[in-house]
Amino acid sequence: MLPRSGDVLHVTRAASVQFLKPILFRVIRVLDRPTYDGWLWLEGYELNAAGDAVNRRSIFVQRAGLRQLQAAPQPRPHTVRSARRPPTRTPARVS
Q1: What pLDDT digit, counting tens, does each position of 27-86 carry?
Q2: CB-CB neighbours of 14 under 10 Å
């Protein structure tokens, strides 16, 4: 599973030994840094029990050790708006 922006993950020791105490993590983005095979750099927010962001972090984790708790909402389809017509101009009457 490759996390997406908005995903909420449960990050435990299975993802990295630094997480003896598991955390909830909302992904902002997957960073494009060179890593070992199967590892990722994630940027996001550590969440408290109420789901509020308490700390912005970058974490280095194994993809296989991540557990998704909440998927990001599906992006809305892009709607194409019709082009606006320019206002019609009429000559001004001068008296």
Answers
A1: 999 998 888 899 999 999 999 989 899 999 999 999 999 999 888 777 777 776 767 777
A2: 15
The answer to whether residues 56 and 44 touch, using CB atoms and an 8 Å cutoff, is yes
Report the distance separating Cα 2 and Cα 66, nearest Å.
9
Task: Give the H/E segment covering residue 78.
Answer: none
Closest by CA to 24, choosing from 36, 38, 11, is: 11
* 53 phi/psi in degrees, rounded to 5: -70, 130
| CB distance 60 to 41 below 8 Å | yes
Cα–Cα distance between 33 and 36 in angstroms, integer? Answer: 10
pTM given for the model:
0.72
